[in-house]
Amino acid sequence: MTDTPTDLADLTATELRAGYRAGSFSPVEVVDAALARIEARADLNAFVTVTAEEARAAAREAEAAMGGGDLPPLFGLPYSVKDLTLTKGVRTTFGSKAFADFVPDEDAVAVGRAKAAGAILIGKTTTPEFGHKIHTSAPLFGRTLNPHSPDVTPGGSSGGAAVAVAAGMGPIALGTDGGGSVRIPSACCGTVGLKSTLGAITNLQAGDLFSANVHVAPMARTVADTALLFEAVAGFDRRDPYGQAALPHPMRFEEMAGLRVAWLPTAGNRIDSEIADITGRVVAQMADAGAIVTEIDLDFAALEETFMVVLETLLASRAGPVLAAHRDDLDPTLLVHVDNGFKHSALALTGAGAARTRAFKEVQAVFEWADVIASPTLSAPPLPHGQDPHGPILINGEPAGRVRHSWYPYTLAFNLTGHPAISFPCGWTASGLPVGFHLAAPWYQERFLLKVAADLEARLAVPATAPARTPAV
Fold first, then answer.
1. Class of residue 161 by CB neighbours under 10 A (exposed 0-12, middle 13-18, buried 19+)
2. Residues of 333-343 as b/e, b for ≥16 C-beta within 10 angstroms?
3. The CATH classification of domain 5-233, taken from the options 3.90.1300.10, 3.40.50.2300, 1.25.40.390, 3.40.50.720
4. CATH code for 260-460?
5. Measured distance CA(357)–CA(343) in Å, rounded
6. Nearest to 164, CA basis, from 3, 290, 40
7. Is 138 in contact with 96 (CB distance < 8 Å)?
8. Are the CB atoms for 186 and 424 separated by under 8 Å?
9. Residues annotated catalytic, as ranges
10. By C-alpha distance, which of 76, 51, 52, 54 is closest to 65?
11. What per-residue confidence (pLDDT) applies to 5?
12. Does residue 264 have a pLDDT over 80?
């Protein structure tokens, strides 16, 4: 066995599976490598809880099972779960001091399916309190750092999951996405994040399943690994109103030639010139390969008010039961949302549902003639840690509007409409920060979407770290 623990931590899930089949290494070695990486990069603060003893015990069981026939799809793969998602017997804090000692007595559906597929839980990753903001920081655990720069955010709210994957603390992870919460940190950290269709991955933690917008979502360093995790945790569940049928046969995708692309460079927002240039080159490459590209104009930024009504009423319902006893323990930026949530009327919430319906119809009209909607994931590179989550951002050095309206309108819209969407790396800025490219597809077409993303990933061949740049003379 020639691989060192450091080498194993950097392998993808697909490479680890091949190594298991070849007998090149064991689950014990792989889990030890992931745990060693977590310890070595403790400065990044990606984990709230590390389940080292449990993971090593599971790895020993997996090692004993090697050579016994076909291996399950996630056999021996270390993975993490965002600390908003229930894990039986492992504390789940929701990023909050109010739940610092809460230990669930059941697994979330996706966690149970990952476990049944052979994955080994190595810990719970950091999240802002109740997933309320795009910075991954909370009074409970402090601040999580971007592995590519300590000065900028790793994004949120699945920031710990993205950092863990990017830094080799397990090749795959489960995050959650309520407005871009796997796709934003994926763009910030140079990883892949998939938000599926409502019901494709059952999330029974949502109090209102009929108007849900929060998804349990797979994350990885490659599209292939993301697809591997998606296939293991997706599927029919009679308890979910949107999960009553198996995923339909995917749309055909053989090659880029003929793919109908609706290109959305801006969505009612400004865009950083470097992001516009990098993502524009991706679209040009698609066109050069034969894709039929048509630029479109959708005002997703105008959905911010609708999104805030949905988000803030949800946060008020979550935080309400602990507010009296723990108000002083809660993140001040969360309290702004919670207090607003109590002020939203039933009429406002009903109006938000109607606005979601209009947005769905608008997106569906695009899919009458387009196969995918392509856009940047974010309008600007990762924001500095000091960015006010309620304040304006700077784009091209000028104030450009509030964070949700101006930085990620591309992502939040598809949480409101329910369409599947993916972010994957498409380049690096001159300062060495990753840039994400975003694709959305019709409902239940995750497999088609993953194929298109994999094709682009191969064409772009984006390096895992920023290329060295020649200093200016």
1. buried
2. bbbbbbebbee
3. 3.90.1300.10
4. 3.90.1300.10
5. 23
6. 40
7. yes
8. yes
9. 82, 157, 181
10. 76
11. 44
12. yes
Contact of 126 with 154, CB cutoff 8 Å: no
pLDDT reading at 331 higher than 60: yes
Identify whether the C-beta of residue 468 lies closer than 8 Å to the C-beta of residue 219: no
Which amino acid type is present at position 306?
T
Whole-angstrom distance, CA of residue 245 vs CA of residue 105: 28
Q: Reply yes or no on whether the pLDDT at 4 is more than 60.
A: no
Range list of H helices, 234-303: 273-288
> Closest by alpha carbon to 352, among 303, 385, 316?
303
* Chain centroid offset of residue 315 CA: 19
Residue 114 has pLDDT above 80, yes or no: yes
- What whole-number distance in Å separates Cα of residue 318 and Cα of residue 132? 11
Alpha carbons within 13 angstroms on the beta-carbon side of residue 357 total 7
Query: Would you state the structure tokens that stand for residue 52, as one six-digit string?
Result: 């080292």
Instruction: For residues 437 and 439, give the distance between their C-alpha atoms in angstroms, rounded to a whole number.
Output: 7
Q: Concatenated DSSP letters for 390-433?
A: TSEEEETTEEEEEHHHHT-HHHHHHHHH---EEEEEEEE-TTS-
Q: What is the pLDDT of residue 266?
A: 98
Structure tokens at 385: 């840690």
Q: What residues does CATH 3.90.1300.10 cover in the chain? A: 5-233, 260-460
Q: Look at residues 79, 80, 81, 77 and name the one whose alpha carbon lies nearest to residue 13.
A: 77
Q: Is the peptide bond before 157 cis (omega within 30 degrees of 0)?
A: yes
| Token representation of residue 4 | 């060192």
Q: Output the pLDDT for position 2.
A: 41
Q: What pLDDT sits at residue 68?
A: 67
